[in-house]
Design brief:
The structure holds two protein chains of two kinds.
Chain A (H helix, E strand, L loop, with lengths): L2 H9 L1 H6 L2 H6 L5 H13 L1 H19 L7 H10 L11 H84 L4 E7 L7 E7 L4 E5 L12 E9 L2 E8 L8 E3 L8 E8 L11 E6 L1
Antiparallel strand pairs in A: 1-2, 1-8, 2-3, 3-6, 4-5, 4-7, 7-8
Helix pairs in contact in A: 4-5
Chain B lengths: L10 H9 L3 H22 L3 H17 L11 H18 L1 H7 L4 H11 L11 H6 L3 H12 L4 H8 L3 H19 L1
Helix pairs in contact in B: 1-2, 2-3, 2-4, 3-4, 8-10, 9-10
The chains are: A alpha+beta, B mainly alpha.
């Protein structure tokens, strides 16, 4: 397109418009050169520009009068084939609703699935917790039993010690009481080196064996030692006792107010009416 | 008649929405123009199914190549019509299509326009028959071939053995006649 040509066109814009080239331009029925020519003319001449706009309006009007409704398949196909910048997923309206319906329909199933799974999980947790609690409970019970046992032992020990203290206190009372006369019984040939201390209170007619300092052989379960008092040559039974080596304090025997000698014999369990002299273990004079 | 369906988005907003690839742009494009574009496609392609395929393809092409549209060179609709018409014409001329439809010769086509085409259009819209009745016969043939059936003016000139200049001026005169009708 040269300058001379443009000048020629300028001379008759009207005939240019009426040549029909603008209609072809609007319909895209021109080659590249012709197109640039029309565009150049449109820029140069407002008449050309206005006419182009009018032809476009004509095209719109004619097209409007020819409208044919396309089936919904076209819309669906179109929307399926393109991507939107403002929406993640592009789906046709119909299948969107379908998907919605499906997801709604699936909801209850999913809910029960999850509820069931949750119940199972809860059950497992509960069982574990129960086992743990049970174990703890058993441990605690054992601890309580152990504590009760050791408590009992302790109480026993306290009782025992209490008892020992009382016995020891009594023994101290006896030793410090001048009314008591301490009589030492020496071992015979049956029990050499044996020794028993007896506290005798003639006023109170009390006789006590010092169990702590007692030193004679242990008796077996079928025999017992028996204490005798010789009163004017006659033996008087003062009771039986055992020797196990762990006793303390004084063991109170039967009462007697007067005696010259104390003696101990080994007799069958429960004691004898008369002393078995062959089994005389210790003897001592007051 | 104009603007009855074009209230979805103003043209500048529609162009912006299309350029930005927003869904509202696609919605507006379809609501505002699909019927008009379908009308144009179906002037070129009788078979409704094939016409709809072409329309869909055209809409996708419009969506994908919107960046090529230059607002300074004309209206959006004009550009879209050209995209659609070109697709439709390409389709009609493809071997595929010729085999499929066993089309009539161009002459038959032109001669039978009035008898065959009118029933497919919605009654509430102005029929092409009525539209073309406003034209003189020598204008009517050329307007129909070029505007509605996708022939180039060169082809019409050859088919009808009329000089190019005459084809153009008759087309021009026909459009001016129709313009009067719309006013």
């Amino acid at each position: 397109m040269n300058y001379v040509n443009i000048l020629n066109k300028l001379e008759n814009i009207k005939s240019y418009i009426e040549s029909g080239i603008l209609e072809l331009y609007v319909l895209g029925d021109l080659n590249a050169d012709e197109k640039s020519e029309v565009e150049a003319m449109s820029k140069l001449h407002s008449e050309v520009k206005a006419e182009l706009e009018q032809i476009e309006i004509d095209l719109g009007n004619i097209s409007d009068s020819l409208q044919v409704m396309a089936s919904n398949n076209v819309r669906e196909g179109f929307f399926n084939s393109i991507k939107f910048s403002d929406e993640e997923n592009i789906k046709p309206l119909a299948s969107k609703q379908e998907a919605k319906a499906i997801s709604i329909a699936q909801k209850p199933t999913n809910f029960y699935k999850y509820a069931f799974a949750a119940s199972l999980a809860l059950l497992a947790v509960s069982i574990i917790a129960l086992v743990n609690v049970n174990n703890t409970l058993n441990n605690t019970k054992q601890q309580i039993v152990a504590l009760q046992s050791s408590n009992q032992k302790f109480a026993n020990r306290v009782n025992y010690l209490d008892h020992e203290v009382v016995k020891t206190t009594n023994a101290l009372d006896i030793y410090s009481n001048t009314d008591y006369k301490m009589v030492k019984l020496e071992g015979t040939t049956n029990a050499k080196g044996a020794k028993i201390m007896i506290a005798f209170n003639s006023k109170m007619q009390k006789v006590g064996l010092d169990m702590k300092s007692m030193n004679i052989p242990k008796n077996d379960s079928e025999h017992q030692y028996q204490l005798w008092a010789l009163v004017d040559g006659k033996p008087v039974d003062l009771g039986v006792f055992d020797m196990d080596g762990n006793q303390i304090g004084f063991k109170e025997m039967k009462n007697i107010g007067q005696a010259q000698t104390f003696a101990v014999t080994l007799e069958p369990r429960g004691g004898s009416v008369n002393p078995t002299l062959e089994k005389l273990m210790v003897i001592g004079n007051i | 008649m104009i603007n009855t369906k074009r209230k979805f988005l103003e043209e500048p907003d529609l162009i912006l929405a299309l350029q930005e690839g927003k869904k509202i742009g696609a919605d507006a494009l379809y609501e505002m123009y699909s019927s008009s574009l379908m009308g144009i496609v179906q002037r070129v392609i009788e078979d409704k199914e094939i016409a709809e395929d072409v329309l869909q393809e055209g809409l996708v092409k419009i969506w994908n190549s919107i960046q090529q549209y230059d607002p300074t060179k004309g209206r959006l609709f004009t550009w879209m019509v050209n995209v659609i018409r070109n697709l439709a014409i390409d389709k009609v001329r493809s071997k595929d299509y010729r085999n499929h439809s066993k089309n009539q010769e161009i002459e038959n086509h032109v001669n039978s326009i009035d008898q065959q085409r009118n029933f497919e259009y919605k009654p509430e819209h102005l029929g092409v028959k009525d539209l073309l009745q406003k034209l003189r016969p020598e204008q009517k043939v050329i307007v129909d071939m070029i505007y509605f059936q996708g022939f180039t003016h060169v082809e019409v000139s050859e088919e009808l053995a009329i000089p190019l200049g005459t084809v153009k001026t008759r087309l021009r005169m026909g459009i001016i006649e129709l313009r009067k009708y719309f006013k």
